[in-house]
Amino acid sequence: MLNNYFPILLFILVSIIIGALPIIVSRFINRGEKIAAKNSAYECGFENFGDARMKFDIRFYLVAILFIIFDLEIAFLFPWAVALDGLGTSGLIAMSIFLLVLIIGFIYEWKKGALNWD
To answer: Does some domain include residue 35?
Structure first.
């Protein structure tokens, strides 16, 4: 019975070795000194300031919700449109309920002012 699981065990061991080998090799190769330029902030172009827990404008969250609304709509609407013939009336009702929930979310965004960039 162990012979049946040997390929799986071998696959797991090889994947662990392949994943760990670059990390181990880089530890041996990079014995250089740590300089401040390598540890500085490079992603945004300026030094960090303030606390990471500072308050953000609500529009950032509303835009994220808006993106999720439209992303979900597209992700579910295309496969539904392709399989529309096989789904019948129940598929049409289910997608109508789904779109109704998304429209309610869009109306919430509109009422909160996420679409106004004044």
So the answer is: yes
118 within a domain of the structure (yes/no): no
Listing DSSP states for 35-103 in one string gives -HHHHS--SSSS---S-TT----HHHHHHHHHHHHHHHHHHHHHHHHHTHHHHHHHHHHHHHHHHHHHH
Say what the pTM is.
0.46
Residue 117 lies in a domain: no
**pLDDT greater than 70 at residue 27:** yes
**Rounded-to-integer distance, Cα 80 and Cα 92, Å:** 9
